[in-house]
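<given_protein>
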Amino acid sequence: MLNVEAYFIYGKSWVMKGYKKPHLLAHEKIHFDISEIFKRRLDKLCVIDIEWTTTLS
């Protein structure tokens, strides 16, 4: 079984002083959303592979 997660580590995040603006947060959220999309695709691929492997057994 494979557990795939997409998460944000607040303590590892930073922004240069004076650049903390709403549009920057929106931009970074897009990066997270993209990682979540690929996480879900990987989840589906793993389920398909497990089902296919089980069928062959």
Notes: The mean pLDDT is 81. The helical segments are 22-56.
